Amino acid sequence: MAKQNFSIFVQLLKSRGFINLKHVTRNDKSFFLADYGPPGTLLRRNVLKQWWKVMVLQQSNVFPVESSVFLPSPNLEASAS
C-alpha cells in the first residue's frame, strides 16, 4: 500500500512540474536522479529555509559550522568520470 501511494505521489509531482526523474547507469549501478522544476525549486528552498530557522536559529545551543567533506577515494574517482 505504501509503495503504491509513493508511486502515485511521484507521478503527481512529475505531472505538476515539481520534479523530472532521470534514469542513470554508472559503474554497473543503476539509480534515479531528480531535477527540480520551478515549483519544486521553490518548495525545496522554503523547506530548507524553515528547517534552518527551526533547527538552527531558534535553538540556543546550536551553532552553524561549515567544513570540508572527505570521501573515500572510489567515490572521488566515480564522480570525476
TrEMBL record:
Domain of life (superkingdom): Eukaryota
Gene3D superfamilies the record matches: Bira Bifunctional Protein, Domain 2
Protein name: Glycine--tRNA ligase
